[in-house]
Amino acid sequence: MLKRVFGFGCLTLLALGIVPARAQEGGQPAIYTYVAEWAVPREQWRDYAKASADEKVAMDKLVADGTLIGYGDFSILLHQEGRPTHGSWFTATSRAGLLNALDAIYKLPQVTFPVMAASKHWDFLTVSRMYGMKSGKLQGGYLGGGNFKVKPGSMDAFFDISKKHVVPILEKLKSEGVVTLYSVETEDFHSEAPGTVTFVYVTADSAGIDKVGDAINAEFESHPELETTFRATVEPQGHSDFLARVGNMVNK
């Protein structure tokens, strides 16, 4: 969902991105996500927030009529020069759903607001077949995750580790209300090099960040061989992190 990702300790960083592109095969029904990221000048952050708030009415209608199954917006907490400061996403069960939603968004007046013209911009279209979504609305949660570059021939190992050791933890945390969304994503239309896997999750509050990290770290510590296996299957220079604050999120 995001292309710059957050980390909270070595083992957790390693654990969060372990699902390879091949693991997308044979999983849940595919969902597709459109991600828009913006590098907004600091003096225009309030203008961007106003435009995002105005867009919420239209997004709620798209969820209500079944075009989308969810959406959200975020602001990056760890800033880097030339990289995004804000962004949004919306998710559908088909590419057509995303494109229909995009057509509706392009008709909104805020797409031509000066803050948009003044900001650098990136778009991504991703696909996931490994995900969990807790129905409802959220304001003020946190979004984190990781990008990992998988070595050729290492996809099966990634899939085995994620299926056995990571997804069950996230499902448990989702059932407890700690995690409200998680997704393992690859680009459906590549704007970056193939082989990158992105893992994202949303927690209901700041305490959830620690709970996710502690749970995954505990799992890796109880199975020391996992870290060795994982390190052998990723490119050391192929990792990036992000941490973001969620403004609004809706899951159908």
Please, could you describe this protein's structure?
With 252 residues, the protein is α+β, with helices and mostly antiparallel strands. The protein has a single domain (10-251), classed as Alpha-Beta Plaits, CATH 3.30.70.100. Helix content is 35%, strand content 32%. It has 7 helices and 9 strands. It has helices spanning 10-16, 45-64, 95-106, 114-117, 155-175, 206-222, 225-231, and strands at residues 31-39, 70-76, 86-92, 120-133, 136-139, 142-149, 179-189, 196-203, 240-251. Strands 1-3-2-9-6-8-7-4 form an 8-stranded antiparallel beta barrel, surrounded by 4 helices. α1 (10-16) packs across α6 (206-222) and α5 (155-175) packs across α6.
Indicate the structural class.
alpha+beta
Write the CATH fold name: Alpha-Beta Plaits
- Residues in β-strands, percent: 25-35%
Q: What does the radius of gyration come to?
A: 17 Å
Q: Unreliable stretches, pLDDT < 50, 5 or more residues?
A: 1-26
Distance between the termini: 17 Å
**CATH secondary-structure class:** Alpha Beta
- Overall pLDDT: 86
Instruction: Tell the overall outline.
Output: globular
Number of domains: 1
- What is the overall number of helices? 7
What's the helical proportion of residues?
25-40%
Strand order of the largest sheet: 1-3-2-9-6-8-7-4
The major sheet is characterized as: 8 strands, antiparallel, barrel
Task: Give the strand tally.
Answer: 9
CATH architecture: 2-Layer Sandwich
Q: Give the SSE string.
A: HEHEEHHEEEHEEHHE
